Amino acid sequence: MAALREVSRSARSLPLSQIRHSYQLCQRRCAATQAAEAVLQDLETDSTLGAPELSPEEKKIFRPWKRAADRKYTLPSSRYQYHPPKYNRGPLHPIQSPPSSDPIARDFVPGPFNLPRLRQTYQSTVASDLMTLAYNHKPPGESHEHEQHEETTDRLRGWDGSSPYHKNRQKRAPRGSPVLKLVERDITFRNIPEIKEITIATFVPEAIKEQDYLLVARTMLLAITGTTPEITKTKSNIAQWGLKEGERAGVKTTIYGNAAYEFLDRCIHIVFPRIKDWKGIKGTTGDGSGNLAWGFQPSEMAIFPEIEVNYAMYPSKMLPGCRVFVKTTATSDRQARLLLQALGIPFYGELRN
């Protein structure tokens, strides 16, 4: 009875058969613990880190590098070395290339070390929405060669036939433009528009007379992009501005991947909302090939958090503005504008295709 009183009240309420079963389990556990302790006793307690250092005589004998240098033949590469295949010969070939996430792969790129919020939003929401909004149903079996032919004839000029050499010649390019614009392709799951790169450039004509303006511009772009900018030179002579060809009067830098999405995220959620009476980006911007651009005034550059936190380091009268060029994988300004609108950039005025 004295032993039963030492047991807790909840244990005393259990039936006798259950108490016996739990007692047998405890005995088994104790036996397993004792067996594990017996195995641990057989292990060596000494570590190789505490081994004594080799004597000078032993060091002369133990020279693996000398043994490898004296070896007249190389070790078989199939057993001691692995080189991934240089060419991918199909999914049914017995030798397959390792995935790009494997460090031994030829196309291995470490990272990504971070995932920007705007890029994650694009991958989870914007990409599927763009494909749905721009879906153009084409019934299977229907021919679309006639539409493509009409679109090509509007862009190219034909020959008048005044010479026999005009026969079977290709169409001529349109007048006034040395390069044809890209034909807008339908958005499918293979070519959803996305951000390819962003170029930030600034023009500082005052740097011709005083190089400190160029230093401030480089420091500003380095702070907001995290990359080292390059100095640009003038390409022509402009007498009204006192510019000569080949003079250093500008700075530019290009960012890719996650850095581009992070810069665009700061513009959308920090800089644009704090600009007073900001309407948005003009709808006529673009080069016709899916690349859009906008500019920042010198007073608006101070809104960037990287400059605002150390604003005293930058002379306010020497801080220049900049021009932002967003290059996308879209084939028209309409698709690029649809992408930036989905990311949160508004447009105003007349919209140009």
Description:
This protein has 353 residues and is α+β, with helices and mostly antiparallel strands. It has a domain at 197-348: Ribosomal protein L5 (50s Ribosomal Protein L5, Chain: A, 2-Layer Sandwich). The chain has helices at residues 2-6, 9-12, 16-42, 56-61, 64-70, 77-80, 117-133, 145-155, 212-225, 257-274, 298-301, 305-308, 333-343; strands at 195-203, 230-233, 248-256, 281-282, 291-296, 322-328, 347-348. The protein has a 5-stranded antiparallel beta sheet. Helix 7 (117-133) crosses helix 13. The termini are far apart. Mean pLDDT is 82; it is low at 23-29. Belongs to the universal ribosomal protein uL5 family. This is Ribosomal protein L5 domain-containing protein. One of its GO terms (molecular function) is structural constituent of ribosome. One of its GO terms (cellular component) is ribonucleoprotein complex.
